[in-house]
Design brief:
- Chains A, B: This is LacI family transcriptional regulator.
- The structure is a homodimer.
- In chain A, helix 1 packs across helix 3 (32-45) and helix 6 runs parallel beside helix 7 (131-146).
- Chain A has 12 helices and 11 strands.
- The model of chain A is unreliable at 316-335 (pLDDT under 50).
- Helix content of chain A is 43%, strand content 13%.
- The longest helix of chain A has 16 residues, at 74-89.
- Chain A has 3 domains: 5-49, no CATH class; 52-166 and 299-343, 3-Layer(aba) Sandwich (Rossmann fold), CATH 3.40.50.2300; 168-297, Rossmann fold, CATH 3.40.50.2300.
- At the A-B interface, helix 4, helix 5, strand 2, helix 6 and helix 11 of A face helix 4, helix 5, strand 2, helix 6 and helix 11 of B.
- The first copy, chain A, binds a DNA duplex through helix 2 and helix 4.
Chain lengths: 360, 360
DNA sequence: CTGAAAGCGCTAACAT
DNA sequence: ATGTTAGCGCTTTCAG
């Protein structure tokens, strides 16, 4: 019932080794006639290599893992497309796992990916503020790397990881400056969840630009929220209870969409009464009512670059220096310096922003 | 360097078999003390099972494959979330592969998933009109199933597959009837790509409702297009060159978004000058300008049901029993009658539709 | 260039 | 209840 390499070999009248070499061997050392015969009988038999067996024998799989919050979120959807296309080009299959921003789930999923011996793991989400959670994740990732697994982070994961970094802080600062340039002085901000580094990073950018301009941003003007429609909506509602901003900065597009919905529900005109901006430039941002001013993050490219980085040959280097995750101090146990790819972002002005009401 | 089960067994002072049973065995036949000892040393050593070896020994993997056009398309994103959550609950990892609606790529990917010995394959996309392509896909899927792989289709894939079917035809008919009810008589339709069955299915529903009402739909009023923003936009542009519909039916939301963009670019008001409807009810449909009237397809549920179906134990040879969609013809080679789950859709009226201009 | 044979890490009979 | 021992299908030394 199951066609094995042995069947192919027998039918071609060659040994197992020859069949293996002819079909999947990297070497070119099989005679043309035999090779052709092997390929022919493989086709006739409908032979398909048994990946788990190959993995066991080769001590290496043909799979890539992508860890994200939610596949259905367009932010991650686009990243995943970039990553899985790059992976496909390298002959790898992509395993996508959602963590819903839960460090425990993330830890479990890292272990699963490790158990599968995925060639590499792309951390598209992650980057928690919680030190204990981070420590546990680092430990799991360390074990994975100790066995040869490659890890690339798309978020701030500490200096020991290869990473692809969009200019979160800088992008948020530029975005804020654009708003300041329009004349806004009263701001409200809806970052992502407080437990994620990326939220704080982007918020930092906003603060930076505001400080520059001497504009204050009190705690009453900041309302953390999940990266979701409902999160953005509810946070906006709470903000409006206690302040009257002329500009609302949502630090994710999905959150901005929720904010727009809340504003619309209250009969406020955007941008007439209040300007709204998002972050990420997800595909539908340009199609909203009104079209959303935002920061373009090169999502697809991030995914692709991450895979490129992950698959790039790594000098296994320094004899006598296999890592040691425990002694965080001292001479770095990892002689291989992590690669970092910085990707610029770009502010995209659309219809959701205008000078504040009363400006002239 | 690599911790194996053997290491764990040795450290616990038990045999390999006992360690295996204590850690991953389904049986309960390990003494409490030993089991505890094994678990303890596994933890101390940081042991992680080696999935490829388990797969080889068990002749079964813990992975699921999802085949779709594009992960970044929200339609598939949401389906994938449903599927991968259900898979995760069953302890499976999800491999997502994009085919970009290309049958050849799809064939290759089916083979890859087969080679990986994914437990089941969910065909979220697929369903081609081309008979030759379909034959080749069926052949590959047949080989996969012959080895015990399970296949569930979310599109029309012929009667031999387990399937989860949204009411595409019916949904399109209902949607069209809603438009007729508003008074529209001049229609234009942008289905999906002509090579996909789902496009024709939905178009059929439109035709059915139109016929009922005695409204004609000439070939000049139908313009096939890829399921994409640009596809919808360009098709709309072409349609407007040769007709002046009062209602534009895009048979996908992403296409409808493109249509809205084109209309806006031409200075046409929606729904004042022309009503626009989509299909799918992707997350951002409600947030567009204007909010899109569409047909809600239970995407997440489809993904989850598909996995449920795929994982449901299958009587290997059970004669008689559940309904059989095929039995008009011969006694098929497959005695197991395919399961079919039909899922209803629902028309959602939003701001993009209104009575035609001039109606009173 | 080709073949024989030793595993890769784990599970599942089959003993005991 | 626990241990012994074959493999699972493939790659890869190592011989010839």
């Amino acid at each position: 019932m199951r066609v094995t390499l042995g069947d192919v070999a027998r039918r071609a009248g060659v040994s197992l080794a020859t069949a293996s070499r002819a079909l999947n061997g990297s070497d070119r050392n099989v005679g043309d006639v035999l090779a052709a015969r092997v390929r022919a009988s493989a086709k006739e038999l409908g032979y398909l290599p048994y990946a788990p067996a190959q993995a066991l024998a080769r001590a290496s799989t043909a799979t890539l893992g992508v860890l994200l919050h939610d596949v259905a979120d367009p932010y991650f959807g686009v990243i995943t497309r970039g990553a899985s296309e790059a992976a496909a080009e390298a002959g790898l299959l992509t395993m996508v796992v959602s963590t819903f921003a839960d460090p425990d789930l993330e830890l479990r999923n890292i272990r699963m990916l490790h158990a599968q011996r995925a060639r590499a793991i792309v951390l598209a989400a992650s980057g928690y503020v919680d030190e204990e959670a981070t420590r546990r994740l680092d430990e799991a990732l360390g074990a994975y790397r100790a066995e040869g697994g490659r890890v690339v982070a798309l978020t701030d994961h500490g200096p020991s990881y290869d990473s692809v970094r969009p200019a979160n802080r800088r992008g948020a600062a530029d975005l804020t400056r654009a708003l300041l340039g329009l004349g806004h002085r009263r701001f409200a901000v809806v970052p992502g969840p407080e437990r994620l580094r990326v939220s704080l990073d982007r918020l930092l950018g906003v603060r930076e630009a505001l400080d520059e301009a001497g504009v204050a941003l009190g705690p009453e003007a900041v309302e953390f929220a999940e990266f979701s429609h409902e999160g953005g909506r509810a946070a906006t509602a709470r903000l409006l209870e206690r302040s009257r901003p002329t500009a609302l900065i949502a630090l994710s597009d999905v959150g901005a969409v929720g904010a727009l919905a809340e504003l619309r529900g209250r009969g406020l005109d955007v941008p007439g009464d209040i300007s709204v901006v998002g972050f990420d430039d997800i595909p539908c941002a340009a199609q909203l009512a009104p079209a959303l001013t935002t920061v373009r993050v090169p999502l697809e490219r991030m995914g692709a670059e991450a895979v490129r980085l992950a698959l790039e040959p790594r000098p296994r280097t320094a004899p006598g220096g296999i890592e040691d995750a425990t002694d965080g101090l001292s001479a770095g146990p990892d002689t291989r310096s992590p690669r970092v790819v910085d990707l610029p972002t770009e502010t995209v002005l659309r219809a959701s922003t205008a000078p504040p009401p009363g400006a002239f």
